[in-house]
Design goal:
By secondary structure, this protein is α+β, with helices and mostly antiparallel strands. Among the domains are: 34 residues, no CATH class; 75 residues, Homing Intron 3 (I-Ppo) Encoded Endonuclease, Chain A (Alpha-Beta Complex); 65 residues, GCC-box Binding Domain. The protein contains eight helices and nine strands. The strands form four sheets. Strands 7-8-9 form a three-stranded antiparallel beta sheet, covered by helices on one side. The chain has a two-stranded antiparallel ribbon with strand order 1-2.
């Protein structure tokens, strides 16, 4: 018994087309053309790949136009409309050829007008760092108090040019010169908001820690370097160059305080408060 022949392949019914039939006796191309226009002989729409505007070789974005001509049509209704060339405006100050920024002035003259009320005024406090620094200082016979911005530690901060610096460091540089690398500016008055140059001195990190105004905030006895033992006695110790030096154990707080201060005076060089009470 011979095997059955497979059914004959259905061919598109459109004249001259030998593609496989997919619907209503037509191939996919002619079926889509029939759905769009109703005729099987209608040729499919071929979308252009290059902008249809003359002398334009850019890729098509939409409606046969490139992005440039499409935006012109979307904005102005005409893809061939040339963009308007805006007239370049310049500063109105005589002899200044800078571009306009605001109020018919360039950026430089505009800022002068904003802060001084006169676009031709060159000098102003904002540009003069020294005068600007002094405008935030409340001078007295002792400390010079910084009235500008202060951080959480009470130290004043000042913007100088492109950098933000501590006010007491700037005061030292202003009166004594540059600060050597690796050194700090120590407040001899223990007032972090003071910028009086007579109250400032150079110190290393260790020397700066030597000159404390009192005990740590977690010290329950209120005496620097003294703690209480479990037996009720008073233990005195000093930190020096990364080591803890035991001074001794004493029966009274006054004895421990005196002993620890004498030891700090022996080891330290910048502990002003200890030397005043010695």
């Amino acid at each position: 018994m011979l095997p059955e022949k497979p059914p004959a392949k259905k061919i598109c019914s459109a004249a001259g087309c030998d593609k496989k039939s997919v619907g209503r006796g037509m191939c996919g191309t002619h079926y889509a053309a029939w759905r769009r226009g109703g005729g099987v002989t209608r040729e499919p729409i071929i979308k252009p790949k290059i902008c249809i505007i003359d002398d334009c070789s850019k890729k098509v974005l939409a409606r046969g136009w490139c992005q440039t001509h499409y935006k012109r049509w979307h904005t102005h209704g005409d893809p061939n409309r040339e963009p308007e060339v805006k007239e370049t405006r310049f500063c109105s100050i005589d002899g200044c050829n800078e571009k306009h920024y605001g109020n018919d002035l360039c950026n430089l003259h505009y800022q002068r007008l904003r802060f001084n009320g006169d676009p031709n005024k060159v000098q102003r406090i904002r540009n003069d760092d020294e005068l600007r620094f002094e405008s935030f200082v409340d001078k007295s016979e002792s400390c010079w108090i910084w009235t500008g911005y202060r951080n959480n530690g009470g130290y004043g901060r000042l913007g100088i040019g492109q950098r933000n610096t501590l006010a007491h460091r700037y005061s030292y540089e202003l009166h004594y010169g540059a600060i050597p690398e690796g050194l700090m500016v120590d407040h001899m008055c223990h007032n972090p908001s003071c910028v009086n140059p007579d109250h400032l001195r150079l110190a290393t990190g260790k020397q700066n820690q030597e000159n404390l105004s009192g005990p740590r905030v977690d010290n329950r006895l209120g005496v620097r370097g003294v703690s209480m033992t479990r037996t009720g006695k008073y233990k005195a110790k000093v930190g020096h160059n990364g080591e803890v030096i035991e001074v001794g154990t004493f029966d009274s707080l006054e004895e421990a305080d005196l002993a620890v201060r004498e030891k700090r005076n022996e080891l330290f060089t910048h502990n002003i408060l200890d030397r005043k009470t010695a």
